[in-house]
Amino acid sequence: MGAVDEVKNRTDIVELISGYVPLKKAGRNYKGICPFHAEKTPSFVVFPDTQTWHCFGACGTGGDAFRFIMQAEGMDFSEALRELAQRAGVSLAPPTPRSEAADKQREKLLDIHAAAAQYFHHLLRQSEEGAQAREYVADRGINSETVERFQLGYALNTWEGLKSHLVGRGYTEDDLVEAGLLVKKEETGSSYDRFRNRLIIPIRDMQGRVIAFGARALGPNDVPKYLNSPQTPLFDKSSTLFGLDLAKRAIRNNDQAVIVEGYMDVLSANQHGHANVVAGMGTALTEAQLGLLKRFTKNFVLALDADTAGDAATLRGINLAREALDRQAVPVPTAQGLIRFEGQLDADIRIATLPPDHDPDDILRETPELWPEIIDEALPVVDFYLQVVSAEYDLTTAKGKSALVREVLPLLSEIKDRVERHHHVSQLARLVKVDERALLMELDEGPRPSTPQRRPAPKVQPSAEAPPDEQKHVFGREEYSLVVILGQPEAVAAADDELLSLDLAPITANDFQRTENQQLFLLVSDWVTGETPPDPGGAEGESNSLVEYIITQCDPLLQSHLSFLLERWEALPAATPGELAEDLVDRILQIRGQHLQEEVASLRFLQDEAEESQNEEQRLHYQTLVDATKEQLRLIHQAVDQRSILGRRRAEAERFGAIRV
Ligand SMILES: [Zn+2]
């Protein structure tokens, strides 16, 4: 699989977009106010099944995750790819040997962190100013052994406590800023302590070296409640787990890792003898984090408090802000994400639910004997999801059953193991009391609109371990069209002529929904129209071939996609240029037809929703859009018909008739 597919596979579009726009669940999709044009009623829809988005309002834009980031952040494709890769914890470049200078700087940053941790720890244990923090620690039931083991500390309520201590030990302000410990004021260039009047929780790497700090507010009105070190050369929160250095042995011995929501939960579990517990970093769990754990076990249990667990939105990918509940963000990607992880990591992921109004810390303090029981009773992700989601629908009605099936089936299709998948299908069939075979058929039938070929099958192994020849690429209509275009660029002009003669628009980048295909098509257009930057070699005569041009212009990471397409071109059966152009027109018509059909389906859904909420104005708005979309669809069907053998004969007959008259 190429880097682009991998990044896409590991990006959850709902999670991504909800970082920009508050989204509301609408059936199986999500709705919000379009971030790209001014509007009052939400017409911006995100489709988790296809991992795409579309604005049904004035701007009419849409696309995949890349397109969203490109538009929202004003990035080009390469920047968007890097941004998403970073968020998803995918490393794009093969690890290169770090230069000596970088190694040295890293060492220095580690030294700074070690010195800072010692300084904070000393203040918590000994200083007069640390009294309030000591009180807080005692209130939370944390004993001194735990304080030592986790090297908890206290940051003074001053602007330059840590700064003057470390500068006094010979470190420069610039180093301390790079370590994330000081904040630099842009205007004045002066710097001050990032952490002030907080309980300090050192975050360590797997080897136990301090690489960052978490800091909890002590005053009831201090915000944020938790403050973490920023991203630094040492600390990448998407690939760090709190407590792993202390937990790894227990995880291996128990052959199980328990993942909780907060630092305090880890401290508490550890203190009560449950050492196999770690916490995420205030973000949804990433595959990089699970990859770390996978070195020690393949059995993961997410211990969620009842609020989180009961909130199905969590599993559907909305990350809740947990400030108010004294927690960090919930460590749960979507259920789909979890199941994909299971497939990728060959892991067993379960979800444990705590009693209402209890977090792990409460349980461990009040009724520690319940903890093992709760963990033992954790449910597999799919069972858990089924339980939560089925509680939401009225399964006595056909509508409720159908909604449940439509929500759950795409999820089941993510399960790689056939036997396991069938087990869950039977379970679902019993739940909604329909014939299991009907569900199985729907699953195996393939291209339902909910799982188009755009979405690549999940990978079995993480890329680092995947043998190079085990490459999976998506190959659908878009890719086929692009193969023809790359192999024979003149086909575009011929196809455009044909489309225009059918009163249809010529081929544009918008005919491609996958941004990587769009990018390649745009380069083809540049080359065809001659809008190419001057050849740096300045050679006269033969112009660059299209492929050479694309290779020099496209992002290096797109090259695996490009070479995959070129291989497909080599494998195509021989055809004349005319045949290829005809074929291209057919595919483009199919693509447009499919897009429009999907659009009608989505609009219908929005319409139903507007009707249910008795918003007549909105319902009419969607009706207008449905009508317009159906009209476009009719034109496509008409064009397809005209191009059929019968259609051509009919046209000929008409012309013949006209001449005869
Ligand atoms: Zn819009």
What does this structure look like?
- It contains 29 helices and 16 strands.
- The chain folds into four domains: 3-88, Zinc finger, CHC2-typedomain (DNA Primase, Chain A, Alpha-Beta Complex), CATH 3.90.580.10; 105-235, DNA primase DNAg catalytic core, N-terminal domain (Alpha-Beta Complex), CATH 3.90.980; 244-386, 3-Layer(aba) Sandwich (Dna Topoisomerase Vi A Subunit, Chain: A, domain 2); 475-661.
- It is an alpha+beta fold and 661 residues long.
- Helix 19 (398-412) packs antiparallel against helix 20 (418-432) and helix 22 (477-487) runs parallel beside helix 24 (515-528).
- It is 51% helix and 10% strand.
- The strands form four sheets. It has a five-stranded antiparallel β-sheet with strand order 1-2-3-4-5.
- The site of zinc ion (ZN) has 9 residues, from loops.
- Zinc ion (ZN) binds at residues 34, 36-37, 44, 55, 57-59, 61.
Structure keywords:
4 domains, 10% strand, DNA Primase, Chain A, Dna Topoisomerase Vi A Subunit, Chain: A, domain 2, 5-stranded mixed β-sheet, DNA primase DNAg catalytic core, N-terminal domain, 5-stranded antiparallel β-sheet, alpha+beta, binds zinc ion, 51% helix, 661 residues
